[in-house]
Design goal:
The chain has 508 residues and is α+β, with helices and mostly antiparallel strands. The chain is built from twelve helices and 20 strands. A hairpin with a 2-residue loop joins strand 16 and strand 17. InterPro entries: SMAD_FHA_dom_sf, TPR-like_helical_dom_sf.
């Protein structure tokens, strides 16, 4: 039996009284369509309730819910002048967000935010300019990753010329970084061809890694590296001897390291009752091309080893024999998005997510979740929330993660995927590395290393990654003691445990 208009109006007023303008809107919509004048008059109160709620959440620094209420109120066509003022305020905040992202070097965020503003009817002369600049920026980044640095600089030049009314600090910083990458690429790629022609495969492998560090998607460097690996697996492969004039410049640029083609190498299994992992052909090849420096505690050294420090990677994979595998993110800000959707997403998940769905960053408050899309923390919808250990994060309709800070004195954290979704590489969790990661047998560790007699620490330094392990251990079958630089890729082994680290390319 249909509900009478009188009862529907009463229910709508009750919904307004309890602060539910969306429920009142739903109830009144059929009556408004049929021309009931009382329902039309009541929609004015609904619009005011929408506006009041939007202003309230905006004061709490939540612009996304405010936008939803504004758009819902505007569909009522009540002519409320306060809605115009609210739209002006939200537009100004959205444009400020775009400018801040452009200045901070986040062009993907600029495009996402500008697209949302355009979908909401925002018209501003700076908006298409910022979208074009961000698009050219992303294109230039992809061109540089392929090794087309001159083309990338030309693309950035066009973007810089368009950026008359928008901030260019981030663009100028990226261009300066591009110049340094180009110089490193130019030196390494010429010497790489010479090394391959002369059959110096150890040198070719290191130089190919240097080229890939500057241009992760450079096809020829990947091909040369595959040839070098194949040649070094041969028992007759010569040892690497890099001339001093081939050394890269002293300046270390924090670039993304790309992984080798093919499947990621797991740690070799321990033999029998927990003996040290035996080196296979691949381990032997790694030994010949070890690029670290001798242990600071006086471990054996190789006078022929290359002591040039490797730049810190943006991400790497940690494989712990018999305990699990983890994606380690070293940036203070990481992004979540749909796997396969393209774009520089740090943690791509095979789930119903937006291309850039959410971000988690580390600051003075701890870890903060930000999302302009569907996100919840412990069941409560949010666009920004400070994370505490044990918090359950929901992204989209079904993806769930659990946040942990298992070591109170360490700012590093761990994310567990609780909903069964997977990343592009099968991992047991994501580690957000600040200055160090603690591996060990106890409960207060970032990742379990069950057979270790004590805690093992992976740490970052000005020279790159390092490992601190009490007593004797080996890196790619090279003896070390107490601590040593940790090149990528490499295998760390003792009599009781084995783990490996592998670089990750710009896209999983």
């Amino acid at each position: 039996m249909p509900t009478s208009p009188w009862l529907t109006l009463r229910q709508a007023r009750e919904a307004l009284g309890t602060g539910q303008p969306d429920e009142a809107h739903r109830l009144l919509e059929p009556l408004v369509a049929e021309g009931y004048r009382k329902a039309v008059r009541l929609t004015r109160d609904v619009a005011k309730a929408y506006r009041a709620r939007a202003e309230r959440v905006l004061r709490a620094d939540q612009p996304e819910p405010a936008w939803r209420d504004l758009l819902a109120a505007e569909t009522l066509n009540t002519g409320d002048a306060g809605l115009t003022d609210l739209r002006t305020t939200l537009t100004r905040l959205g444009l400020a967000e775009c400018r801040a992202a452009l200045e901070a070097g986040r062009p993907v965020h600029v495009i996402e935010t500008a697209a949302r503003l355009a979908d909401r009817g925002v018209r501003h002369p700076d908006l298409p300019v910022m979208r074009e600049v961000a698009g050219e920026w992303i294109l230039a980044s992809e061109q540089a990753d392929r090794g087309d640095f001159l083309l990338a600089k030309d693309t950035l030049g066009r973007a810089r010329a368009r950026a008359v009314s928008v901030p260019t600090t981030g663009l100028d910083q990226f261009l300066a970084t591009l110049d340094r990458r180009h110089e490193r690429f130019r030196i390494a790629v010429g010497n790489l061809n010479d090394a391959c022609d002369a059959g110096r495969w150890g040198d070719a492998l290191r130089l190919a890694d240097a080229v890939v560090a500057a241009a992760p998607d450079h096809r020829d460097a990947r091909d040369h590296r595959a040839r070098a690996w194949a040649a070094l697996q041969s028992p007759a492969a010569p040892a690497a001897e890099t001339p001093a004039e081939w050394a890269a410049p002293d300046e270390t640029v924090p670039l993304i390291l790309a992984g080798a083609d093919g499947p990621l190498r797991r740690p070799a299994p321990r033999a029998g009752g927990g003996g040290r992992a035996k080196g296979n052909g691949e381990d032997a090849a790694v030994t010949k091309t070890w690029t670290g420096v001798p242990s600071q505690s006086g471990g054996p050294s190789d006078p022929g080893a290359d002591t040039t420090p490797a730049p810190l990677p943006k991400r790497f994979l940690l494989w712990i024999d018999g305990a699990g595998q983890f994606l380690v993110c070293m940036n203070p800000r990481v992004t979540f998005g749909q796997a396969g959707a393209g774009g520089p997403i740090d943690i791509p998940v095979h789930a119903e997510l937006a291309r850039l769905h959410a971000e988690v960053f580390r600051d003075g408050e701890g870890y903060v979740l930000e999302s302009a899309n569907d996100a919840q923390v412990n069941g409560a919808a949010t666009s920004r929330a400070v994370l505490r250990t044990g918090d359950r994060i929901s992204l989209g309709p079904s993806c769930q993660l659990v946040f942990h800070r298992p070591v109170p004195i360490s700012p590093s954290a761990r994310l567990e995927i609780a909903s069964g979704h997977r990343l592009s590489v099968a991992v047991d969790g994501v580690l957000l590395m600040a200055e160090a990661l603690i591996l060990g047998p106890g409960p207060q560790v970032h990742a379990a290393l069950p057979d270790a007699p004590g805690n093992v620490v992976l740490y970052r330094s000005k020279d790159g990654l390092g490992v601190r392990c009490p007593g004797a251990f080996s890196i790619d079958n090279r003896p070390c003691r107490d601590r040593a630089p940790l090149p990528l890729p490499s295998v760390v082994a003792t009599d009781t445990f084995t783990f490996a680290v592998e670089p990750v390319g710009p896209r999983l």
